[in-house]
Target: N5-carboxyaminoimidazole ribonucleotide synthase
Amino acid sequence: MMAVPSSRTPLVAMVGGGQLARMTHQAAIALGQNLRVLANAADEPAALVTPNVVIGSHTDLDDLRRVAAGAAALTFDHEHVPAELLEKLVAEGVNVLPPPQALIHAQDKLVMRRRLEALGAPVPRYAAIESLDELDDFAARIDAALVVKAARGGYDGRGVRMASDLAHAREVVGDYLAGGVPVLVEERVPLRRELSALVARSPFGQGAAWPVVETVQRDGICVQVIAPAPELSADKAAAAQRLALRLAAELGVVGVLAVELFETPDGALLVNELAMRPHNSGHWTMDGSRTSQFEQHLRAVLDYPLGDTDAIAPVTVMANVLGAAEQPAMSVDERLHHLFARMPDARVHLYAKAERPGRKVGHINFVGDDLTKLRERAELAAHWLSCGQWSDGWEVHG
Model:
């Protein structure tokens, strides 16, 4: 006899009230749900749109219990929840997804590097550093430029320092160690470009992979994503997808997993970072894929069959809108008005965040078949929304 689905829609709770939770809530609405979020404040992006908000801290066990109460699954807008608190929730019967033993690989770069190395995944040469002598030994051994990373807590380039020389590396490491921050030092990999392989996995073990994308970085922040990555062979793209799906299975991930990759000049792929949540490199899927990463994440944590990840057009370009060095006098609303007047094909997603220099306040997608044209339009549009100026000299009232 076939089981009759419950008429009660399952509730998903998400720790964090940022833009990822906001966009996950948008996907939840289409599935007949609302997303409960744990936000630090009532004016955070997700708290402004979902009616189901718990105000509290991700480092407070009672607040985590409140947001998880009655939820079919507890998942994440960010990865900063202490593992020991998540383990207590699991012991109390909360369905934490991804589970703490998986999430730790996105929280701790040293744990991640060691596990990936044990699984035979390609990674840069690295070392855990507890003294300046260990740094000197590693530098002598690899004879390459160095990257110094805080093992925990970094994102969007924070906690990552490119050392100009060994003396600079010693200075950065010394500062981290003096502050009690565990340190990871890696070789600076010669780069052709950075790629991202985005996949999803359900508790049932079903996996799905989107096209591999190229991520364009500036000052440690992603400014543009090109889907699919141009001039990436079908064999190499498939290999990256297989690697990401294998890591999702080996690590026990449930939900979306982003595997950020370095492509070297000789074509090798090395794993740089992991993210176990919807990811900036997947924002293009909102307009360029049959299933967005946000809907897929919900499907995965609820153990629904996963959605089709095919692209709906030959190319999608996503551009992040970053806060300008000086906030424009023109309001966001007026900037949006002029953008749509010039570019009615722009697909705009704003986060309702205060504009601060370098802060991600939104993104824009362009979908089509001409990569060069789409990249130019994406760059123009993002600059306009950031600064209120057309970088090509377009006259707003001309």
Summary: The domain at 190-312 is CATH 3.30.470.20 (D-amino Acid Aminotransferase; Chain A, domain 1).
